[in-house]
Amino acid sequence: MKKLLEISLGIVTSVGGFLEMGSLSTAAQGGAAFRFQLGWPIVLGTVCIIFLAEMAGRFAAVSQHTIADGIRHRFGIKFFMLPFVATLIVNMLVLSAEIGGVSVALEMATGIKHPWWALPVAMLAWLVLWCSTFGFIEKGMSLLGLVTLSFVAAAVVLRPDWHQVTAGMLPSLPHHDPANYWFTAVSILGASITPSLFLFYSSGAVEDRWDRGYLGANRAIAGLGMAFGGSISLAVLIAAACVFPAYGITRVDDYQHLPLTLVAVFGFWGFVLFVASLAFACFGATLEIALEQAYFFAQGFGWNWGENRKPREDPAFSLVYTCALAISAIPIAAGVDPLNLTVFSMALTAMSLPLTVVPFLSLMNDESYVGRHRNGVISNAVVIAIVLLSFVLAIVTVPLQIVGGT
């Protein structure tokens, strides 16, 4: 019964935490510019993250190592510095974008410009991390994030052409603006296949003290949970594809456009639902990414770590998330546009994938870590495909950013 409860809570965690500033903005941009044609990167990204999350949980449950700890232990500190530096940079940008997302939601609610909210948001996130436990962050904030299911309701009420929606789930060549099409597709994939998600997932499994008895629950959490999350992201794209063209919007370059996806369906309450969705989802992501920064530092350098510990028991761990939040709030407080920062950081996320996925694949086939629970043929084939995809994304991201991201 306990494991059944954890499965349901894990699904809630995914539904509440999957949609954040990156998924929201990239899916909305894809729907506005190309209608339903970019459903396929959401589907592809969801399938990829299901496999990576399942492997991250399986690795943690069997080896009692996190992915970061396993990479450092297996390949040495010098090799570990490659994914460490890349993840550090990308996470700081994404963390700044998530703080910006909460700040934008507060601007919409109060009329006070978002730069004024950046430092208070960072301070509130720090207070939650300092005083709470991992279970509170994992389950409490994600329950609040269930309001994001309003996008699913909106997508159904808008009655899209489901034949076109289904067709968009299969890759196709763009009908116009190919540079922007492929840049948006890369950004959607970057928002879906984020290293921080499966790195955090493995740390959470260790925090929750998973063992081999949780392998079945892990498959359910990874499969059902991430599928629900991907469905929400797809619902945003569908709502944007139905609503934005009616307003003549083909490019989401102003965050004030975003509430239209729900306002067009629910009126004033749609605005309330959008503000709540953006605020709760981005604040949950802020907590998760700040924690992931601390996890990655601590696990990479052999420090004490754990959100369930008192700050005095792991002061270096607590110092990392404190500094991460303070530094990441600065660009938003200085007036950097959160939407532009989000799209740029999602593209860089895609570019950084090979540095974490490649060593992770090696770990999942190392019997000294996972024994008989190592990857099978299907899992290896999928991860090899993800590795190849990540190399392609790494190569094309910068040119597409220059040509199509402007």
UniProtKB/TrEMBL annotation:
It is found in: Membrane. The chain crosses the membrane at residues 37-56, 77-97, 117-136, 143-160, 180-201, 221-248, 260-283, 316-336, 342-365, 377-402. Keywords: Membrane, Symport, Transmembrane, Transmembrane helix, Transport. The keyword Transit peptide does not apply. InterPro entries: NRAMP_fam. The keyword Transmembrane helix applies. It is a multi-pass membrane protein. PANTHER family: NATURAL RESISTANCE-ASSOCIATED MACROPHAGE PROTEIN 2, SOLUTE CARRIER PROTEIN FAMILY 11 MEMBER. This is Divalent metal cation transporter. The lineage of its organism: Bacteria, Pseudomonadati, Pseudomonadota, Betaproteobacteria, Burkholderiales.
